[in-house]
Amino acid sequence: MEAALYAGLDFFAGYPITPSSEILELLAQRLPISGGKFLQMEDEIASLCACIGASLTGCKVMTATSGPGFSLMQEALGYAIMAEIPCVIVNVQRGGPSTGLPTHGLQGDVNQARWGTHGDHAIITMTASSHQDVFDVTVEAFNLAETYRTPVVLLFDEVVAHMREKLTLPAPGEVPLVERLKTSVKEGVDYHPYLPREDGRLPMSDFGGPHRYNVTGLVHDMWGFPSTDPKMVYELLRHLVDKIENRAGRLARYKSYFLRDAEDILISYGSSARSARHVVEERRLRGERIGLLELQTLWPFPGKLVREKCENARSVVVVEMNMGQVMASVKQAVDRPDSVFLANRIDGVFITPQDIMNILRIIQGRGV
Amino acid sequence: MEAALYAGLDFFAGYPITPSSEILELLAQRLPISGGKFLQMEDEIASLCACIGASLTGCKVMTATSGPGFSLMQEALGYAIMAEIPCVIVNVQRGGPSTGLPTHGLQGDVNQARWGTHGDHAIITMTASSHQDVFDVTVEAFNLAETYRTPVVLLFDEVVAHMREKLTLPAPGEVPLVERLKTSVKEGVDYHPYLPREDGRLPMSDFGGPHRYNVTGLVHDMWGFPSTDPKMVYELLRHLVDKIENRAGRLARYKSYFLRDAEDILISYGSSARSARHVVEERRLRGERIGLLELQTLWPFPGKLVREKCENARSVVVVEMNMGQVMASVKQAVDRPDSVFLANRIDGVFITPQDIMNILRIIQGRGV
Amino acid sequence: MEAALYAGLDFFAGYPITPSSEILELLAQRLPISGGKFLQMEDEIASLCACIGASLTGCKVMTATSGPGFSLMQEALGYAIMAEIPCVIVNVQRGGPSTGLPTHGLQGDVNQARWGTHGDHAIITMTASSHQDVFDVTVEAFNLAETYRTPVVLLFDEVVAHMREKLTLPAPGEVPLVERLKTSVKEGVDYHPYLPREDGRLPMSDFGGPHRYNVTGLVHDMWGFPSTDPKMVYELLRHLVDKIENRAGRLARYKSYFLRDAEDILISYGSSARSARHVVEERRLRGERIGLLELQTLWPFPGKLVREKCENARSVVVVEMNMGQVMASVKQAVDRPDSVFLANRIDGVFITPQDIMNILRIIQGRGV
Amino acid sequence: MEAALYAGLDFFAGYPITPSSEILELLAQRLPISGGKFLQMEDEIASLCACIGASLTGCKVMTATSGPGFSLMQEALGYAIMAEIPCVIVNVQRGGPSTGLPTHGLQGDVNQARWGTHGDHAIITMTASSHQDVFDVTVEAFNLAETYRTPVVLLFDEVVAHMREKLTLPAPGEVPLVERLKTSVKEGVDYHPYLPREDGRLPMSDFGGPHRYNVTGLVHDMWGFPSTDPKMVYELLRHLVDKIENRAGRLARYKSYFLRDAEDILISYGSSARSARHVVEERRLRGERIGLLELQTLWPFPGKLVREKCENARSVVVVEMNMGQVMASVKQAVDRPDSVFLANRIDGVFITPQDIMNILRIIQGRGV
Question: Is the pTM of the predicted complex or chain greater than 0.80?
Answer without folding.
Answer: yes
